[in-house]
Amino acid sequence: MSSAYFALRERLLGPLGDQLLTTDQLCEAGRVICGRPEGLSLYGVPAPELTARGLRVLGRTAVECSKDPHPSVVAELIAELTAGLTAEPTAELTAEPAAEFRRPLGRRPMVVDLFCGSGNLGHHLGRRLGHPVYAAELDPLVYATASHNLDRVGSSVVLRLADYREVLAALPARSECDTYVVEPPWGAAFTPDGLDLTRTEPPVPQILDDVRRSRDGLPCLVVIKTNDRIVNGSLDGSFEGGVHLRSFVPEPVLPTGLNAEFHIYRLGERPPGPSR
């Protein structure tokens, strides 16, 4: 199974990386990655129905995305963690993204997806929590595909073609219930030996430092997707000074090291010590 996974992964990240997958290709990805064709599902739409519904999935997105039903479970965990803590909405969402990013801030919590990709995780967080969702995507092709899909499913995610640091700079802290989604490209950080979060692109510790700086000391929640084999203590090390709140470990489908996990932390100020 692992050899079939890595062979497909190489195709999807290589020659098929920038190609829109056909229904047959999506179903193959579902079988190999998720154990069954319908296991590859985005925005509540399973692989056999994605193209018929007008949704577009790039080869690399099929590998890297957070697949249903995992985002819904994560959203439910965050809803439980923040129950009774969030303020009432102070303003309705506007339709125009630029205006939404410039709007004076109230106390309504927000979700910020720093590396949007498919946007599936941010989409489900917004639907369950009822918070505005802002997202950044730096790759123009991924941005165009995600924008199309999010519009197609009627998502409220406000997506910008921008570096994640630009979005952080545009969104000062609103609430201690603000939630940041951290899913940077794994690249060379993922090997058969495991996942090293200090080698993602950019490294997770750097991303978390940027989040801290943008919030001027106000704590927040962070959701991070990993696999089930973290190496070099890089998860604990990345969140040094933070508080682990919950983990969601789906039933494994593939051999150890190839399955997704999700972790929720409370992030505050970095503890005193040498800079990374």
Explain how this protein is built.
It contains 11 helices and 11 strands. It has 2 domains: 2-63, no CATH class; 65-267, Rossmann fold (3-Layer(aba) Sandwich). It has helices at 2-13, 23-34, 47-50, 59-64, 70-82, 97-102, 120-129, 140-152, 164-170, 204-215, 234-238, and strands at residues 41-42, 45-46, 111-113, 133-137, 158-161, 179-182, 190-191, 194-195, 220-227, 243-248, 260-267. Helix 5 (70-82) runs parallel beside helix 7. With 276 residues, it is of the alpha/beta class. Mean pLDDT is 91; it is low at 87-106. The strands form 3 sheets. A 7-stranded mixed beta sheet has the order 5-4-3-6-9-11-10, sandwiched between helices. A two-stranded antiparallel sheet has the order 1-2. A two-stranded antiparallel sheet has the order 7-8.
State the name of the first-level CATH class of the largest domain: Alpha Beta
Taken as a percent bin, the fraction of beta residues is 15-25%
**How many helices does DSSP assign?**
11
Q: What's the CATH H-level superfamily name of the largest domain?
A: Vaccinia Virus protein VP39
Number of strands: 11
Mean pLDDT: 91
Can you tell me the CATH topology of the largest domain?
Rossmann fold
Q: How many domain regions?
A: 2
* Proportion in helices: 25-40%
Coarse shape: globular
CA-based gyration radius? 18 Å
Helix-strand topology string? HHEEHHHHEHEHEHEEEHEHEE
List keywords for this structure.
276 residues; alpha/beta; Rossmann fold; two-stranded antiparallel sheet; 11 helices; 11 strands; 17% strand
